[in-house]
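Thought: the user wants the 3D structure for the chain below. I'll pass the sequence to the structure tool as-is, report back what it returns, then summarize two notable features.
Action: structure_tool
Action Input:
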Amino acid sequence: MNELSDMTSNGGGPTNPVSVVEVDTAGIEAKLQHILDVYPQVSPSMLQIAMNPLRAGEWRPALERLISEGKVHRYHFSTTSAVGRSITYTVIRSINPHEVLDKVLRKAGADSASETASGVHTTTVE
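Observation:
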């Protein structure tokens, strides 16, 4: 039987059952931590883009676990937009963003990082 006749014999659906892939929780947590190492403060929408191709239902449980363990912080704040509308934002951030940034710079081989008089770290990463 050819593939077309296989498909039509079962109503046009797939001929093979779809396998279920288990979610790698440790890998997802590591990816979340890495994203927050690079971008210490993000919105949930930005995080969704960074976690692509995973769906929110796959990475949110890992995020909630990191929040409950105190490794990541989530907060909400409200403000008024320029046109007078009330807006509430959700922000997900690293607990120690400056330590995280230093770690990322060291990881990138930025051993020549220097601190300016204003306290800003500057470096050249090639």
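Final Answer: Structure generated. The helical segments are 3-9, 25-38, 44-50, 56-68, 97-107. Residues 1-10, 16-21 have pLDDT under 50 and may be disordered.
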